[in-house]
């Protein structure tokens, strides 16, 4: 009997000593919760302090280069995202300010640096960055999408876009330029060959509709890199919305001198399927009239190429393989496209950064982005049969460009550019 009591007491004592040992071990681990060099962030010896308290007031151009936007645009964006990303201080430590959270996220997009590299500069731990950056990307898209990346909802909004295309690029009834690009991602075993594209790297596809002012008005991302333009477009909500007539497009309109009415259309390259709402160029063996159509379409379609170029040049994360889970890659793309529009509207852009056509000398000066971009075009579909309605509509547009809708320099441009 006494032996049993002694054994119970011994077991209980062992348990107590075990808990004490675990508690002490836990305390030892707790003491290493944050490395000392990370705690010195509050002393001002980090990149955030340099940018927000020195470059901001002493070198505005350097500040703009660092965050890819002006001081006023940065301040305005901070106000918008603060309610979503600001955290409360605790008795253990001060919270990382909203300005710093936004700053490190913008730097992540601007450079494509790893979390480890950003950690050293900003004195923020990698686990903290892995929470801060996705959270801030989500907040950026949430606060910008309705005002800066909203797809037109009414006939009047679509007509405004079409009028801009007509005025700037001499293409009437154009609702946008449609294009797709590969976004490189880090290869992972679980992907297999699903995201392996024809250029021999792994990617997801960004499909976008761009207005006449290089702004994204529709973005679809996530399709596997093996797909082509036509397949991605067919899977997109844009295609389904067009088929179901959900976008309240303007009614077809008549043009004096052209038989029948012309519908409002989108322009794309020859990888897309010609349809009632999609115009693409004629093939290589074209008549002079068809070449005129190709030239006029290319002027309107070039805005999408420039929009992608501006995006990748400003946010150089797109010039590297993105080593993030697929859902986080989508966050990166959506936030970057919204920021592209935001910066475009708030700060404008250097005209030298996009292609410039001189109609007096019949020459094109390539945009500066063409020297640096790494975004790859999609593969042309091997099965891409055009519908009869699309063929008829393209024929009428060709007739318009060769008669009442001609511009005086188009004949020389076709000869010089060999369309």
TrEMBL record:
<feature type="domain" description="DDE Tnp4">
    <location>
        <begin position="178"/>
        <end position="341"/>
    </location>
</feature>
<keyword id="KW-0539">Nucleus</keyword>
<protein>
    <recommendedName>
        <fullName>DDE Tnp4 domain-containing protein</fullName>
    </recommendedName>
</protein>
<dbReference type="InterPro" id="IPR027806">
    <property type="entry name" value="HARBI1_dom"/>
</dbReference>
<keyword id="KW-0479">Metal-binding</keyword>
<comment type="similarity">
    <text>Belongs to the HARBI1 family.</text>
</comment>
<dbReference type="Pfam" id="PF13359">
    <property type="entry name" value="DDE_Tnp_4"/>
</dbReference>
<dbReference type="InterPro" id="IPR045249">
    <property type="entry name" value="HARBI1-like"/>
</dbReference>
<keyword id="KW-0540">Nuclease</keyword>
<keyword id="KW-0378">Hydrolase</keyword>
């Amino acid at each position: 009997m006494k032996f049993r009591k002694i054994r119970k007491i011994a077991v209980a004592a062992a348990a107590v000593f075990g808990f004490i040992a675990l508690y002490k071990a836990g305390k030892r681990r707790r003491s290493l919760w944050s490395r000392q060099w990370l705690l010195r962030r509050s002393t001002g010896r980090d990149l955030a302090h340099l940018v927000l308290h020195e470059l901001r007031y002493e070198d505005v151009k350097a500040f703009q280069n660092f965050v890819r936007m002006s001081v006023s645009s940065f301040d305005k964006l901070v106000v918008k995202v603060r309610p979503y990303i600001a955290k409360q201080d605790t008795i253990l430590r001060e919270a990382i300010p909203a300005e710093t959270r936004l700053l490190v996220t913008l730097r992540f997009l601007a450079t494509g640096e790893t979390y480890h590299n950003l950690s050293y500069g900003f004195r923020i731990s990698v686990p903290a960055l892995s929470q801060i950056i996705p959270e801030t990307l989500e907040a950026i898209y949430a606060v910008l999408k309705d005002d800066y990346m909203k797809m037109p909802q009414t006939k009047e909004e679509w007509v405004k876009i079409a009028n801009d295309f007509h005025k700037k690029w001499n293409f009437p009834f154009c609702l946008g330029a449609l294009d797709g690009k590969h976004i490189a991602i880090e290869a992972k075993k679980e992907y297999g060959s699903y995201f392996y594209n024809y250029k021999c790297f792994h990617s997801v596809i960004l499909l976008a509709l761009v207005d006449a002012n290089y702004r994204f008005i529709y973005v679809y991302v996530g399709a596997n890199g093996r797909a082509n333009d036509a397949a991605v477009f067919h899977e997109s909500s844009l295609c389904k919305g067009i088929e179901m007539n959900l976008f309240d497009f303007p009614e077809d309109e008549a043009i004096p001198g052209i038989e029948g009415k012309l519908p409002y259309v989108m322009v794309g390259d020859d990888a897309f399927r010609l349809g009632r709402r999609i115009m693409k160029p004629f093939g290589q063996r074209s008549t002079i009239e068809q070449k005129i159509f190709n030239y006029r379409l290319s002027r309107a379609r070039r805005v999408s190429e420039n929009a992608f170029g501006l995006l990748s040049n400003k946010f150089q994360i797109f010039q590297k393989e993105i080593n993030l889970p697929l859902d986080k890659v989508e966050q990166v793309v959506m936030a970057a496209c919204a920021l592209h529009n935001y910066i475009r509207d708030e700060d404008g852009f250097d005209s030298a950064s996009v292609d410039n056509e001189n109609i007096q000398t019949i020459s094109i000066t390539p945009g500066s982005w063409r020297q640096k971009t790494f975004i790859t075009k999609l593969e042309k579909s091997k099965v891409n049969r055009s519908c009869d309605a699309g063929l008829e509509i393209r024929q009428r547009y060709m007739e318009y460009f060769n008669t009442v809708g001609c511009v005086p320099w188009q004949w020389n441009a076709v000869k010089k550019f060999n369309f």
